[in-house]
């Protein structure tokens, strides 16, 4: 049973009416965090600190103090964020024994300053390097949206997604390098917001790819994502709410619609029809530049190159302690020369300029967040071939907008008994506020 089902605003309204207390919310979340449904979701819990934050906020409210939106509410943090006095493990075992962090990472420090009740660190793909969410060291959190089949939680922010889906947290702090917020959001029926990378400092987070890593979160609504983003970035986006009617949406016909499973194709077509009926203009565009990404991103790939730079010493010291699938991907960057790396960066810069020009007349680009339903865990654990095939499909659409250095939302687009699916709403670098207005309008039109 899901604990918290309301949005942050709805919870705060109930708190203001004194129907509930933050202490009770956090106590229940901590209790359920140790239950069967939450197995492998957390790598560490902070019961004393979380309860103290909740009680402090309750006491402040009782004294008539006006509180920030997240004050005393349960929030989870991904295992790659530094916490003072702890070694950052990042879903691995190879980091054991490394120096502890002297201070909190910027993201964690800002959540603490907001009064958030940080209930624990969440499990993740080792070193954030997969969109699947499987972890052989700490176990794999099970996606709770299907009670009959154990399906993947999506990655790499796997535990973050499950913590919010189970209602143990109002927000899951994660990261997004190639889709690691939007993929878990899509497979859990949540909202994920990958902001422009430069919006939130990466300081204190164990990196995968410094060119792509983005500090961001997933929640139950677009507005909740904006509330959390304001804390993480230190500046609320100036979002002007707009009606959907008259908005122009581009739907690329290259790559992002390939290999869609029938259920996803059906949901995506239905979603476009709903938006069109509400007055949006849907325009199919080629955006053939999307087909260039594999060539520009070779050899090795931007993430493997930069991940190898970060983790080469760990690999040399204890490669046998790595998830072999993660080590295999990191090693793709081992033989790339400086000349090839610079050529990749130059090629990406040129590509970004051309794509920005191609989509500049549209309010947003729409496509499925992922083209498949969440696969079963067992099938991907059993076969490297099945794992890498699924991983490629999971990351394909989302990564395009990381490569663009853009901003992107995933909002739910499933109905009734359908398994969760996401609609991805994306734009260019720095367009976060305008894109947020689009996401709010889309969410409202879809009845979320």
From TrEMBL:
One Pfam annotation reads Amidase
Superkingdom classification of source: Bacteria
- Keyword hit for Protease: no
Keywords recorded for this protein, A-Z: Hydrolase
The record's listing under Gene3D superfamilies reads:
Amidase signature (AS) domain
Q: What does the record give as EC number?
A: 3.5.1.4
PANTHER family the record matches = AMIDASE AMID-RELATED (PTHR11895:SF176), TRANSAMIDASE (PTHR11895)
Q: What is this protein called?
A: Amidase
